[in-house]
Amino acid sequence: MKQGTMNILFFVLKTKLLKNGEAPILMRITINGQYEETRIQRSVPLKLWNAAKGCSKGKDRASNELNNYLSELSARALEKYKELMLEQALSTPALILKRVFGKDTEMRTLLETMRQEIKDMEKVVNIDYAPVTINRYKNVLKKLEKAIPDFYDKEDITFYELSPEFIKAFDRYLKTEADLCRNTIVRYMKCFKKITNMALAKEWMRKNPFYGYKMEQDETDPVFLTYDELQTIMNKNFTVPRLALVRDIFVFASFTGLAFIDVTTLRKENLIQDNNGDWWIRKGRIKLERRRKASSISNVPLLPVPLAILKKYENHPTCIKKGRCLPVLSNQKMNSYLKEIADFCGIKKNLTTHCARHTFGTTITLANNVPLQDVSAMLGHASTRMTQHYARVMNSNLKEAMNNVRERLAQ
Predict the structure, then answer these.
(1) Which residues contact 196 (CB under 8 A, 6 or more apart)?
(2) Which residues have CB under 8 Å from 19's CB, separation 6+?
(3) Sign of the torsion angle spanned by Cα atoms 392, 383, 328, 126
(4) Under a CB-based contact definition with an 8 Å cutoff, are residues 31 and 94 in contact?
(5) Which of 99, 124, 197, 261 has its CA 20 to 30 A from that of 286?
(6) pTM for the whole structure
(7) How far is residue 169 CA from its own chain's centroid?
(8) Residue ranges per structural domain of the chain
(9) Residue 385 and residue 387: Cα distance in Å, rounded?
(10) Are 260 and 354 in contact (CB under 8 A)?
(11) H helices of 91-175, where?
(12) What are the CB-based long-range contacts (under 8 Å, 24+) for 185-193?
């Protein structure tokens, strides 16, 4: 019973007889030297078992029914093996046995799998996944729902139909028709690749369609405020309470370098006073990409400006109710209101919550000669390589370096 390099064997367990004295029958599938076996929930008297042929040698009705069942299992195994070959999926003994006995027989399609994954992600939103991550997967799904019919001329495809040619075509579609920038395309492709990696791990496909595809992002300069621009925002009198609140949160992040999620979850226990009476923020940075976890520890000494902001909101109803230090709004609202603040202050930059972190890394620290490794530690970066792109845009540092050169050349 062979199909290519697959072998099917039926045998009995002579040493583990059942209570009725019969031996249980097992089915073993071997592919390229690897095998998997399982009981088929049938048994036979030892005297009636033909080990050489793998069947019963009896002539009675029960023996004939057993042999017919064994033949049916063999035929079904060969059929499932052929299906896997057509799907270009990885044919393993375990997977064939699952399909033979009615498990994992569903044909997996790309879009339907993505929809189910998104539903599962939504069940653990703000626990394992941030809303922005789920929205990114939804955006990828929408783009695939448009690109797949154009490329394959059908609504959905099985995983084995995915090819490197489609990956290239989808990249081109995101670049041209969707009009996305390179870095956004890379983020979308990473989401897409996670789905295909899952399919490969679960043996729904054999070949990696992303093989040879390079995800190279364009290098971008971080948007940050100069000290004059930051002072303009700090000194602006906002009569609208929501803008005043958002301004204070932004200024706090600009003087501490905390990411938005870390400002949102900042609690009193994260504020530590040292032996000299100075206050520090000691907090594990939170990332909600794949799962909620502290990736590194931020140690930030609190300057007078952020200390005053903490004092201002310590009795705010939202802070008391949620046990947090600041009444932070949602990231979407914060970014929307920050654009209003930028307009009021005459700042021609794309002001976002993350711009505050960049401002801390450049204007507050590096521009004031704080060593790169210390800035890296306060930002909670795993290495100074992550902090280098802040230093790269510091024109003041370049100017100082060239002034030193000018002085030496003048000697």
Answers:
(1) 159, 162, 205, 208, 209, 210
(2) none
(3) positive
(4) no
(5) 197
(6) 0.55
(7) 23
(8) 2-100, 110-201, 227-406
(9) 5
(10) yes
(11) 93-100, 110-123, 131-152, 164-175
(12) 186/215, 186/216, 186/217, 187/136, 188/136, 188/139, 188/140, 188/143, 189/213, 189/215, 190/215, 191/136, 191/137, 191/140, 192/140, 192/144
Q: What is the CA radius of gyration of the chain?
A: 32
Whole-angstrom distance, CA of residue 403 vs CA of residue 133: 46
Contact 270, 283 (CB under 8 A): yes
Residue 399, both tokens? 């100017």
In terms of C-beta density within 10 A (0-12 exposed, 13-18 middle, 19 or more buried), how is residue 304 classed?
exposed
Q: Convert the pLDDT of each residue in 216-248 to its tens digit.
A: 876 666 788 999 999 999 999 999 999 999 999
| 227-406: CATH architecture | Orthogonal Bundle (1.10)
Give the pLDDT of residue 391: 65
CA–CA gap between residue 386 and residue 376 (Å, rounded): 8
Q: Which two tokens stand for residue 5?
A: 């390099």
| The pair of three-digit structure tokens given for residue 169, joined into one six-digit string | 């075509």
| 371 exposure class (CB count in 10 Å sphere: 0-12, 13-18, 19+) | exposed
CA-to-CA distance for 37 and 397, rounded, in angstroms? 68
Domain 110-201 = CATH 1.10.150: yes
What pLDDT does 68 receive? 93
